[in-house]
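Our consortium's second objective concerns turning raw sequence data into structural hypotheses that experimental partners can test. To show how far this objective has progressed, the report includes one record in full. It was chosen at random from the queue rather than selected for favorable results. The single chain below, 298 residues long, was entered without modification.
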Amino acid sequence: MTADRPPSAPRPRTPVNPPGTPVVPPRTSVTAWRPSVPGISEVLHAHFTDHAYPAHTHDTWDLMILDDGAVDFALDRDRHGATGTGTVVLLPPGVPHDGRTVTATGFRKRVLYLDTSVLPERLTGRAVDRPLLDDAPLRRRVHQLHTALGDAGDGFEAESRLAFIRERLHGHLATWAPRPPGREGSRLAAELRELLDARVTTGLSLQEAAATLHAHPTHLIRCFKQAYGLPPHTYLTGKRIESARRLLLDGRRPAAVAAAVGFHDQAHLNRHFTRHVGTTPARFATGAARARQQVTSP
């Protein structure tokens, strides 16, 4: 019989971050692209943990929202700070500005670079005086536009959302108020609906619709929504979903259906179809095929 061994002392555990060890911040990430939406020259999504922009200028307007953290910046020699998710930052073209992180965790931002067709340079002075806009509806609209820009097939929606952002920015900088739909509203709405019904597959841009009907883009959207209860881009998507359902019931494959009804690709069809119908096009088609077999089998 062997003697009981004394319990061995536990081995000391090395702390994850020993005292004095510098904390390594998460890696910086930057994603940028140029969307096919008139007026937007670039979209930028970034997470900076330890970065300072030198003083510089842009030829565009910079419309920025924060998703996390805080940023400190100078605009025309005056320093400003933006914190949290409630503020919209608007930096005008041609005016020097910098930017730097404030905390160890840095900040996450999404930026739209807008050309002067969206906002004219004559509004620069007012923007310098007021670069921070405490406007929750504007912030929500900018977020919705970024979401639409994430899918190349949602260009009509992105145009519509940009039109309302432009209108609200004009209200901040030029004290310009939108005109409510008047007696011509029903006529404009019906004419736009005819255009959309005729272009379900090929689609059309908001600029083209506004030019064809001789109406301001946001006024046209307001007239349509007042008459039919939903914005025109949502109506167009619904029409495409209706067409997709009919083709899937006929036995067409989802990839072919996406192109046939005007969606950018199958992923674009999947996203909208699932949101509208509650299932994917492939499952919808499988269920339809199974039902056809049951009906035709003896």
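The partners drew two points from this record. Residues 1-17 have pLDDT under 50 and may be disordered. Strands lie at 29-33, 40-48, 52-56, 61-75, 78-83, 88-91, 97-101, 107-114, 132-133. Both points have been shared with the crystallography group to help prioritize constructs.
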